[in-house]
C-alpha cells in the first residue's frame, strides 16, 4: 500500500525565484550597475568589450557661410576582456533541523544563499570600480571639504548625482561632520544609505578596501541622461540556479546555488577612487 513518510513531508521547496528575490534585496550596488543578459545561451568564457576614445568637442566656424568644411575624426578604441566566473554556495541540513527549528528553515536557507552570493557579486563590483584611472588623493579623513575637492577635480561630473561607498570604520568620520545629513532626517534614496555629505549619498560597504590606514572609497557618478551608461556592467551568463538533493544515508538535504557572471568597468569616467585616511 502507499505510505507517506516523513521524508515526503519534509522535502523543502527552496526555489531559484525566491532566492533571486532575496538576492536582489541584498545587492546594494545593483542600482549603480547595468545588468545584461545578452550572454545567456551564447558560447565562450570571456567578454570582450570595446572602449572608444572621445573624438573631442565639435568645432564652430567663424561664419555662417555655406560650404565650410567639417573636420573629420577617426574612431579609436582599445579592448578589455573580462573572464566569466561561477560563484557557488551550498547548505546541508538534517530532517531534525526542520522539525526542531523555531523559524521557517526554508526562509532562512533562501536568505543565507542570497546573502552569500550578494557579497561575492558586490565584491566583484568594487574590484571593477577600483580599476578606474580616476583617483583623488584626499590626504585627510572623510570631510565635507574632501568631497568638494573631489568634485572640483573632475569637472565633467559636476552635474551628476554621486554615491560614495565608505568602509564601516569611516562612519564616525561621517557622523562627526557638522554638515552631515543623516538618513533619518530625510527619505534615503538608496538601499543602505546612511546620509549625505556635500551632496554625495553615503553608503557603507564592508567590501570597500582598507589598506593599512588608507581607505579606497569608491565614488560612483550616476548617469545624467538615458543615453548615458553606468560605471559598471554585470553580465549574466546564467541566471541563479538552485539544486536540491536528498542524501539518504544520513537523512539530510543538500541545497546548492550558483550564478555565472562577469563584471567589468564599462564607463571609467563614472568611477572615481577617493583615497581617505
Please give the alpha-carbon distance between the first and last residues. 73 Å
Poorly predicted tracts of residues: 1-10
How many individual helices?
6
The number of strands is 14
Question: What's the Cα radius of gyration?
Answer: 24 Å
User: Into which percent range does the helicity of residues fall?
Assistant: 10-25%
Structural class: alpha+beta
| Helix and strand run | HHEEEEHHEHEHEEEEEEEE
| Shape descriptor | globular
Strand content: 25-35%
Report the biggest beta sheet as strand number plus sense, adding barrel if it closes.
8 strands, mixed
Compute the average pLDDT: 81
Descriptive key words:
single chain; alpha+beta; eight-stranded mixed beta sheet
Secondary structure: elements and pairs:
Blueprint lengths: L5 H5 L5 H11 L6 E4 L9 E7 L24 E7 L1 E10 H6 L4 H25 L5 E3 L6 H10 L8 E5 L4 H5 L5 E2 L12 E3 L2 E5 L4 E3 L2 E8 L10 E16 L4 E14 L5 E6 L1
Parallel strand pairs: 1-12, 5-14, 6-9
Antiparallel strand pairs: 2-3, 4-13, 6-11, 7-8, 8-9, 10-11, 11-14, 12-13
Helix pairs in contact: 2-4
Task: Walk me through this protein's architecture.
22% of the residues lie in helices and 34% in strands. With 277 residues, it is of the alpha+beta class. Strands 5, 6, 7, 8, 9, 10, 11 and 14 form an eight-stranded mixed beta sheet that branches. A four-stranded mixed beta sheet has the order 1-12-13-4. Helix 2 (16-26) crosses helix 4 (105-129). The longest helix has 25 residues, at 105-129.
Short description:
The protein is of the alpha+beta class.
Amino acid at each position: 500500500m502507499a505510505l507517506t513518510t516523513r521524508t515526503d513531508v519534509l522535502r523543502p521547496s527552496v526555489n531559484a525565484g525566491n532566492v533571486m528575490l532575496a538576492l536582489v534585496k541584498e545587492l546594494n550596488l545593483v542600482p549603480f550597475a547595468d545588468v545584461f543578459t545578452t550572454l545567456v545561451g551564447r558560447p565562450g568564457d570571456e567578454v570582450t568589450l570595446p572602449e572608444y576614445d572621445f573624438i573631442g568637442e565639435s568645432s564652430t566656424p567663424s561664419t555662417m557661410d555655406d560650404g565650410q568644411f567639417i573636420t573629420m575624426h577617426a574612431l579609436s578604441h582599445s579592448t578589455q576582456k573580462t573572464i566569466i566566473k561561477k560563484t557557488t554556495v551550498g547548505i546541508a541540513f538534517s530532517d531534525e533541523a526542520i522539525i526542531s527549528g523555531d523559524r521557517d528553515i526554508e526562509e532562512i536557507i533562501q536568505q543565507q544563499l542570497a546573502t552569500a552570493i550578494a557579497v561575492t557579486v558586490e565584491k566583484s563590483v568594487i574590484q571593477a570600480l577600483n580599476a578606474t584611472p580616476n583617483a583623488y588623493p584626499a590626504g585627510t579623513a572623510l570631510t565635507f571639504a574632501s568631497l568638494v575637492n573631489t568634485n572640483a577635480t573632475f569637472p565633467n561630473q559636476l552635474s551628476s548625482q554621486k554615491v560614495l561607498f565608505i568602509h564601516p570604520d569611516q562612519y564616525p568620520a561621517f557622523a562627526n561632520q557638522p554638515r552631515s545629513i543623516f538618513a533619518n532626517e530625510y527619505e534615503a534614496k538608496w538601499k543602505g544609505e546612511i546620509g549625505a555629505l556635500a551632496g554625495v549619498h553615503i553608503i557603507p560597504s564592508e567590501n570597500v578596501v582598507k589598506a593599512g590606514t588608507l581607505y579606497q572609497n569608491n565614488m560612483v557618478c550616476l548617469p545624467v541622461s538615458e543615453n548615458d551608461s553606468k560605471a559598471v556592467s554585470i553580465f549574466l551568463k546564467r541566471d541563479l540556479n538552485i539544486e536540491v538533493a536528498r542524501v539518504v544515508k544520513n537523512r539530510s538535504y543538500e541545497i546548492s546555488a550558483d550564478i555565472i557572471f562577469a563584471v567589468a568597468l564599462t564607463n571609467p569616467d563614472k568611477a572615481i577612487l577617493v583615497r581617505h585616511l
